[in-house]
Amino acid sequence: MEVLILGFFQWFWNLFGLWDGIWSWFHHVWPLAWTLMCFVAILVPLLVGVAYMPYFERKVIAYMHVRLGPNRVGPAGLLQPVADGLKLLFKEVLVPTKASKMLFILGPIIALAPALVAWVVIPFADGWVVADIDAGVLFLLGITSIGVYGIIISGWASNSKYPFLGAIRASAQMISYEIAMGMALICVLMVSNSLNLSDIVRGQNEGLFAGMGISVLSWNFIPLLPMFIIYLISGVAETNRAPFDVVEGESEIVAGHMVEYTGMAFALFFLAEYANMILVSFLTSIFFLGGWLSPVSFLPDGHHWLAAKVSFLLFCFIWFRATFPRYRYDQIMRLGWKVFIPICFAWILVVGVWMMSPFNIWK
Amino acid sequence: MMEFKTFVFYVLSAIMLVAAMRVITARNPVHAVLFLVLSFFTAAGLWMLLEAEFLAIVLIMVYVGAVMVLFLFVVMMLDIDIERLRHRFWSYLPLGAMIGLLMVAEMALVLSGKYFSTEVLPGQSMPAGYSNTKELGHLLFTEYVYPFELASVILLVGIIAAIMLTLRQRKDSKYQYPLEQLAVKRNDRVRLVKMPSNKEPSAGQGEQSS
Predict the structure, then answer these.
(1) Which of A64, A90, A116 is the endpoint of a domain?
(2) Which of A68, A324, A330, B48 is the most exposed place for a label (fewest CB within 10 A)?
(3) What is the least distance, in Å, from the CA of A134 to any CA of chain B?
(4) Is B133 touching A (CB cutoff 8 A)?
(5) Residues of A with CB below 8 A from B178's CB?
(6) Count of CB atoms situated within 10 Å of the CB of B160
(7) Number of domains present in the structure of chain B
């Protein structure tokens, strides 16, 4: 990819006979320019996706309720996200009188930033990754654990009761489910023997069934089925989506940490939530559903498979919201600590024994 | 010209020093905790610069992502009157200064000693394919497996001790038993009573219910 674009530049400037002159100084900045290009190429589609996620969600839920959903702005309501974005942009950002002003503004920024930073280690197809680092999974766990600060800081800085309650609920819930998620990932790391996300995907293309041409049966979600389910549910809890949305449960604490926010400051929380949803869907596809691999060998691998898997998981997120009633808070804590974490421990043991036994399928 | 790495080192060190100073000078305890988070974060950046990416990420994951969140959680709940705490600043100063001097002396001993001086430590950077994480894991589970296991047992004891110290069984508090709730059959909760529907209502009852 990098060679292709560089080759295009060379061809373009050679038309004017300027390439050698330009390259003599440009090769100093080329790595930086290339990285920036990668970021733009990832962030622009991501933010467009984030903008259209609420539209998708409203439409899907509407059809599940036998309604029409947004259909007034543009054809089939397709310009609704643009209208919503413009409305939020032109609204005034209010800061409450007794709020801690700097932290109040910092909160939404910290909530959004980790959701965007994590994308550098996501492989979209074989070799299509900005930073192909060996500690990729650790990096992801570290970066996503920072996101909770956005919620805590904004809840505290608002200097008001509902945001504070929301922040406390959020911190307890997100820390609890991070443990379950990390434990589920330990099993994935054990079987793929790597912390590199690209290697984890490649590892799922090996084995008995992959050799027979049906790699879908070699993906991690079959031998690690309990971990897959736990990771998916913890992902819903980690992004504070229904049925685990007690952080902003509107019938209990109005909108939690977002109560005092207006305009774009509020929109940043909104963007962060949807960016996190998309990120968790990508991670679930990469860790358990074979990433960019095609389910059968006669179809070519590629990023479209990853897109299909992610779309299905995003649909599941919305499906859950339309289906399940909200959990009670103590039941959320019980599910995280007393159900998921013991199951994870047990399955780590099972996988360990399995890998040492003659029936090991991950050689 | 200064090397780029050196420049990054000085920027990170400056941020870290300012953040560390603000931890002890900030008037608001929540601000102090957040500055501590910032200094951890920049310390992780410094370690990353030393090619210790595993340690750097673990520092962020464990301290920034978990420990400091709980810390912040507690500090936010407490009603700390910082002025009252400042009141006895001068009486604590000699003790604090002594501990500080002791730490400076220890650091000087370590850094100037023969084990940790820059001549003794390997300064060369590793080849590109070298995985710090893998090497560390390999050493932990082969050469240092007993100290590693010992440390984990000590941590486990710590966890159990903390739970035992805070666990208070109250007799009057009500618990839910989800397994019992799930195991309930219809007959445990509902009793179907057969009543004839054509019974004549007595005059007095009919008036009361309407």
Answers:
(1) A90
(2) A330
(3) 7
(4) yes
(5) 334
(6) 10
(7) 3
Residues A156, A265, single domain; the answer is yes
Q: Which residues of chain A have pLDDT under 50?
A: none
Assess B55–A contact: CB distance below 8 Å, yes or no: no
Contact indicator for B51, B8 with CB cutoff of 8 Å: no
Show the 3-state SS of B31-93: HHHHHHHHHHHHHHHHHHHCCCHHHHHHHHHHHHHHHHHHHHHHHHHCCCCHHHHHCCHHHHH
Shared-domain flag, residues A251 and A133: yes
Residue span of the structural domain in which B137 resides:
129-167
Q: Which structural domain, as residue segments, surrounds residue A167?
A: 91-356
Nearest CA in chain A to B52: A135
Check CB contact under 8 Å for B133 and A134: yes
pLDDT tens across A310-362, in order? Answer: 999 999 999 998 898 888 888 888 888 888 999 999 999 998 898 888 877 77
> For position B124, what pLDDT does the model report?
59
ipTM: 0.77
The pLDDT score that the predictor gives to residue B204 is: 56
Q: What pLDDT, on the 0 to 100 scale, is given for residue B210?
A: 46
Q: Which residues of B touch A164 (CB under 8 A)?
A: 76
| Chain A touched by B76 (CB under 8 Å) | yes
Best CA proximity match to A229, nearest among A316, A358, A115: A316
Among A48, A68, A90, which residue terminates a domain? A90
The DSSP code for B118 is T
